[in-house]
Fold:
Amino acid sequence: MRIPCPHCGERGNDEFVYLGAAALTRPAADAPAEAWHSYVYLRDNPAGLHSELWQHTHGCRRWLVVARDTRTHAVFSATDAAV
Amino acid sequence: MAELSAFTKVKSVAATHGSTTAMPIEPRSVVSITAWRGAAPALADAAQVTFGLTLPQPGRWIEHNGLAAIWAGPGHWWLQRDGRSELLAELAPLAPHAGLIDMSDARAVLRLSGPAARDILMGLLPLDLHPRSFTPGCAASTLAAHMGVHVRQLDDAPTYDLSCLRSYAGSLWRALELASAGPLRLPAA
Amino acid sequence: MSRLASGGLIDRSLSHRFAFDGRLYNGHPGDTLASALLANGVRLFGRSFKYHRPRGVLSAGPEEPSALVELRGGARREPNTPATTIELYDGLEATSQNRFPSLGFDLLAVNNLLSPLLSAGFYYKTFMWPASWWEKVYEPLIRRAAGLGRAAGLPDPDHYDRAHLFCDVLVIGAGPAGLAAALAAGRRGARVVLCESDPLLGGRLLAETGEVDGMPGADWAAHAEAALRDCPSVTILRRTSVASVFDHGSYVAVQRVADHKPQPDPHEPRQREWRIVAKRAVLAAGGFERLAAFSGNDRPGVMLAGAVRTYLNRFAVAPGKSAVVLTGGGDGWRTVADLTRHGVPIAAIVDRRREISPEQHKLAAASGAWLHLGAKVTGTRGGPALWGVDIAGADGVPRFVSSDLLAVAGGWNPAVHLTSHLGGKPVWNEAACAFLPGALPPGMAVAGAAAGTFALSAVLAEGAAGGAAAAEAAGFSGPAPSVPQASDAAIAPTPIWIIDGGKQKAFVDLQHDVTLKDIALAHREGFVSVEHLKRYTTLGMATDQGKTGGVAGMAAMAALTGRGMAETGTTLHRPPFTPVAIGALAGHHRGKDFRPARLTPAHRWAAEQNASFVETGPWLRAQWFTQPGETDWLQSCMREVNAVRGSVGVCDVSTLGKIEIAGPDAGALLDFLYINTFSTLPVGRVRYGTMLREDGFVFDDGTTARLERDRWVMTTTTANAPRVLQHMEFVHQVLRPDWRVAFISVTDQWAQFAVAGPRAREVIAATLDPGENVSDAAFPFMACGSFTTLGGVTARLFRISFSGELAYEIGVPSAYGDALARRIMAAGAAFGITPYGLEALGTMRIEKGHPAGGELNGQTTAIDLGMGRMMATKKDFIGRAMAQRPALRDPQRPTLAGIRPLRPQDRLRAGAHLLAKDAPSTIAHDAGWVTSVAFSPSLGHWIGLAMLTNGPARHGEIVRADDPVRGGSVLVEVVPPCFVDPEGARLRG
Structure:
């Protein structure tokens, strides 16, 4: 697989580290236990478009949000997670 | 007191391969500079005004008065100069805009130069080093032989500076040795 | 001799001497082993996998199922190598395989008589009973009898290389379509990589007689190659097979750099793995001629009709003295024409059709052959070589023809394999009578025979158009490419799948000995899906992956089920396309180069001190330093511990992760990362901290020092250093991007040493430059600061202790690490300073009850480790919410405790389980486990740390440490987890 890093250009996936679903918001410190449980443990497992966190560990070291089709591996976009 | 080369385990600290040479570049003074969020323009201005240095764009490096600025990531550069100097203190004017960390001894650098340099690196780096894609002034980080490696091209000889974590110096040398043992003879098309 | 008097792409001026099964022969440069042996009249090449039937050469390329040999000898012996792909060189040695004792007389051919036992699925059925016989009787017998060549069994003396290539257009195959594609793309200036598995470019042009642009095909190929050399952006890789297609335009190709030599030149790799990234690809891999399934179709002398033409035209070899041609249509008539032209007598032509064209009648007449229309072959006769063919005419009358070559034109399979590597399913095309590429990998186009186009003029046009389109898509436009001209009529595909009648075995997989009967059996037993059929019968699972016979097997199943080819489908092709040596994938990463190693700046010094090194992750760390007279590690370790506790020692701790943090929000970041508060830490002080994962379990621990107002340095465990940095980057970039903080790993920037023991202060004082003050008042426990050593070199000094002794860690820029180690040794010489390694370090931390690897196992909480009170309550931090879960605060959870054996001489073992003294050894009574043990030189007996249910409340209780795996059950007393100086008087001294 090759991932188009928005900073470094397209690179092989062995330069990257995978974390998991990107569309998660860390709950407030006093959020109910259910919110924390959901944030830490519950994940969708879509067959199709999936928004994922990858770090370009052996490149610019930035955390990226990569939109990918889990069935075909087609990558639609890769953006910096902080931007 | 004597410094010890990062390549101390290597039998000879310079090697030639035909007219292509590899040699360690040390010592150097290196400072990692990371702009605060939104402060990259102010940092660039300060670098320009104070040091006459234009911080390079992604994937590039430049040099001015012996001070090189190497892009390392968005808002992140390495500033470096050959030899030991008080670079961190010298760069203090940039501190309001960025975090500055001394990295002079953190990485080992090899300079590979000569006609076979590009072919040898093709065996090591998963990067497109073809002159259409990678020219003097280009810089990139990647993974090679299971090590994080940074490469920048200096001239059309071609000459490249190749760096890795200092502790990997011996392994980088070995990887280069292996990559150049069987010189890549691309069939002249 | 079967060598033709003239013609062929061989160099008759030179002779190569070679040996097959010990007999010497001569061949020429340009020959393959197969062509050279055929030229010498050799017909028998090997014995088959299961039945040990005699086998010859079926094909002339990498699809070869039968003529597999062991190439070379000794450590370079390479089994299962198709003789059809081995380039002849002077001195080549090869041997036949799977025969005992010799190829001509094979005792195990008795398997052929046992064949009823060896039918499809015999693995699963025949040897089921009695079960006890499997290991001792059946398996050894099968292993002896079945199988292919023998592995060398010695380390491979050659090396394998890897290299990366990036291009605009990758052209796979340099036949007519590939050459036209490469020319079209290269002339537009695109960076083209052209891969051809053969040493020569040209593909079928080298094997056929058709003309291109008014010249013989082989000549045109040479001209095309010259034209490609004139394109500076074209790279030609010959002897290079594209093995696999991966996502996003990634390909792996293997180049046989030196396989055509007895051994590689000095420094030359045997093979090179190319990792190619291409914007576009044109697959021009051609096609493979099919084997038709008929009675006796495996006899040496049965050969694909196209391969016969290859041997005649390219290698100038007559593969027989008298031929029978079996065809279903026009393609076989090319073989008739070429045999006739080269003067090889044709005994009979068997065409499955009842009517043929006038030109074919003329060809038949010119050949002098006995023409059988509407006829079929019902059997072959011969032993190790064919001597006759049984034919049933249209009238049903059986006839016999003497012949030593049966050329079979069963039709062609497009080489669609690479189109399937990303999951694309080939689609049956009725007009082409073949499976054509289905959904293509993104960026790939298919041209020529691989796309089901067989007429040469159309192949050339398709290649040129494909190459131009690929270049266009990669950003290189230009005028429409000139299309090389050829005049040939399209030949209607008239496949032969299965010919019924006859009593002999009809094979659909020659390499795995799968017959039509096996397909029928699989059908009867319900294995009708092609994927089940494949696995049940092993059809297409041999090294040739069924390139010749596979589709006939599918056709046989289609006939049995009556479902038709489209519905039956074909199995998915997976990488690699042709076998790849594991060595080529390993490249240089073998032996001591398996992976890189990280050495500390003082590695040389440690080696001089006789250190034994151990791998911890990529690092090499000193484990202990053996002194003269010491015979085992425990002796060395005890001496080192005693030296530290008694006087002073020095330990290289450079491998611990070090992360320097700068910026006004550094304190906020640390407060967010650690369970305890750091923002209040004064400059010049160090604090121990623990980090959790967001799920509330302990992630890592270490000390963080505040060097300046906005400059901190954190230490992590050696093993977790990369992960902690990634975690911090995640927290900063994703969760708190606005914080003005920057951090980077400085593990390699600083060489760091622990100096520990009652005399540590004196040693540190003597190590630093004169005038530096490290008195307890000036530099108390948990202080940090900047000093100079080695005559002006900046040193970071930390008064922290892992050993429990008065201790310091001193760091200098790495280039000075070696010098600092020597300076410390000199400074400590008066006190007998002793270098100590990981074992002593580990022993002392167990004596002090500091949690490490065994305790920080990802399943323990801060409370479990006795650090519950460290958790700040007034701030948010990573893991805070989840750490509050009631189950994680349950006092019944296993909690850190110390243990010591009731009988001092008893040895403790990590991994033992703890049970109440009299409880039975069952999981229901499990009360925890021993995490770390050491022999304590300070106490004179073994000690251990453990995770024990409700541990802190059980100090003084006697429990049992049960170790059923290694044997032994030891009674231990539960004690507080700190064994030495629990008040901490020494480290504050």
